[in-house]
Inverse folding.
């Protein structure tokens, strides 16, 4: 069996998860950083309450799910291409010495495909659980 520790570019997986989450919640981050509760058009109103209600609307399940699906449409093809490159990399470098043993070679290639597809599934499983956890607290 191919151990997962030989899969290259492991530090980029966490980076990809963070980029995906930042792209989903970028509106909320900008809202927290740049919303002016003391603006002149909010005179006579409680700006902090408006800021919190607006933030709650941005982080609502419907809006977050829309953003999740929107950015997922961009990240799925990129992630599939990245996993395809990893498959090609490992097939040519790690599995090359199995060429003389036909049965082991094809079993190893099949295990490699399954492991790389499991990485993709775990990636979106982690993001979905984080997404659910953030929206269940409201």
């Amino acid at each position: 069996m191919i151990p997962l520790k030989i899969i290259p570019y492991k530090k980029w997986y966490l980076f990809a998860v963070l980029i995906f989450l930042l792209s989903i919640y970028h509106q909320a981050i900008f809202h927290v950083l740049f919303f002016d509760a003391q603006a002149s058009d909010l005179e006579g109103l409680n700006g902090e309450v408006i800021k919190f209600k607006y933030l709650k609307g941005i982080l609502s399940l419907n809006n977050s799910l829309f953003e999740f699906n929107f950015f997922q449409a961009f990240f799925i093809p990129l992630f599939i291409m990245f996993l395809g490159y990893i498959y090609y990399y490992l097939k040519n470098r790690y599995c090359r010495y199995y060429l003389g043993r036909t049965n082991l070679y094809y079993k190893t290639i099949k295990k490699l495909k399954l492991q790389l597809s499991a990485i993709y599934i775990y990636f979106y499983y982690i993001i979905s659980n984080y997404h659910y956890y953030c929206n269940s607290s409201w």
The chain has one domain: 8-136. Residues 8-136 form one domain. The chain has a mean pLDDT of 76. Helices lie at 11-24, 26-34, 47-58, 61-93, 102-136.
